Write a sequence for this structure.
């Protein structure tokens, strides 16, 4: 008998047994071997490079156009078949209607909003639970909250330490967990600090609680004036992709129309719809979960593309019986 090989096998058996016990005690541990075998869908964006699944924070000075930018995001998501809820904490119905007229907003049930802090959203302490209650009742793809301070527990009423980092990190972590739990985008509008109209070399320095925000949020967006003071830009950074900066164009005295890289966004959305359409064409009566598997995309991503293709008359069918092509876009 080869005792060296016998001892080596015995040692391997002991290591395997101890690893098995470890996995039983800590079932959330993942090995590199298991990770490699996992089928993980591509990062899901409701708007590429701007609004992902997860927690996003948008900061910027007053009167630069944050609310209009958010409403433009709402329009883009709805155009792709998504559903949004918008908490317009500083708006009345009159102001919200005026904003819609400026943007030529679509008449749709896929946009639901709440004006001002009253009714179900009067209490900041109960705000998050009310949002989760909504998500349990009705599917929204993105929850927009304008502004963030209305959704967080006031600092004096939290069990966290009084410093900004502990406060923002603890409060925002709960919202990030809610986004993961329901696989939605939660997008909050935030105030900037002093000298808000000053240009910062690092745009994130604009934000109150910026260190905690960048540590907790998945995606951070900052609007600010350009260095020459003649224009405005939108800087984006986070865990989802590389940092980028977009130019903002003024419309009726307000910066909210994105130019620059954003010109490619419409092409990205059409590409996703085309991929789904080509998949259905090549696989008549294919069901939605099969499209997800073939394209390695998320369920939401495929669902939005399918919804858009059905509304535009390119495909017919349903998720159970499968889809067929009516017309190639």
């Amino acid at each position: 008998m080869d005792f060296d090989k016998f001892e080596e096998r015995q040692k391997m058996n002991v290591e395997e047994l101890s690893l098995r016990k470890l996995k039983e005690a800590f079932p959330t541990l993942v090995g590199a071997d298991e990770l490699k075998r996992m089928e993980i869908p591509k990062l899901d964006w409701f708007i590429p490079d701007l609004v992902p699944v997860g927690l996003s924070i948008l900061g910027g000075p007053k009167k630069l156009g944050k609310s209009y930018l958010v409403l433009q995001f709402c329009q883009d998501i709805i155009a792709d078949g998504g559903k949004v809820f918008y908490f317009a904490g500083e708006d009345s119905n009159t102001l919200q209607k005026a904003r819609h007229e400026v943007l030529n907003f679509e008449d749709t049930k896929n946009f639901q909003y709440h004006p001002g802090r009253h009714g179900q959203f009067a209490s900041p302490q109960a705000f998050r639970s009310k949002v989760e209650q909504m998500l349990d009742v009705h599917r929204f793809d993105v929850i927009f909250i304008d502004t963030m301070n209305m959704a967080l527990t006031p600092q004096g009423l939290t069990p966290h330490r009084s410093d900004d980092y502990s406060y923002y990190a603890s409060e925002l972590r709960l919202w990030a967990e809610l986004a993961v739990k329901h696989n939605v985008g939660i997008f909050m509008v935030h105030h900037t600090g002093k000298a808000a109209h000053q240009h910062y070399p690092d745009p994130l320095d604009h934000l109150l609680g910026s260190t905690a925000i960048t540590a907790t949020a998945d995606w951070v967006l900052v609007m600010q004036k350009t260095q020459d003071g003649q224009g405005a830009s939108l800087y984006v950074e986070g865990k989802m992709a590389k940092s980028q900066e977009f130019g903002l164009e003024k419309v009726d005295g307000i910066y909210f129309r994105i130019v620059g890289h954003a010109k490619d966004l419409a092409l990205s959305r059409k590409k996703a719809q085309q991929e789904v359409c080509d998949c259905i064409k090549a696989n008549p009566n294919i069901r939605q979960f099969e499209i997800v598997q073939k394209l390695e995309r998320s369920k939401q991503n495929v669902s939005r593309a399918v919804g858009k293709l059905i509304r535009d008359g390119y495909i017919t069918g349903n998720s159970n019986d499968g889809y067929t092509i009516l017309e190639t876009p």
Observations:
- The two ends are 71 Å apart (CA to CA).
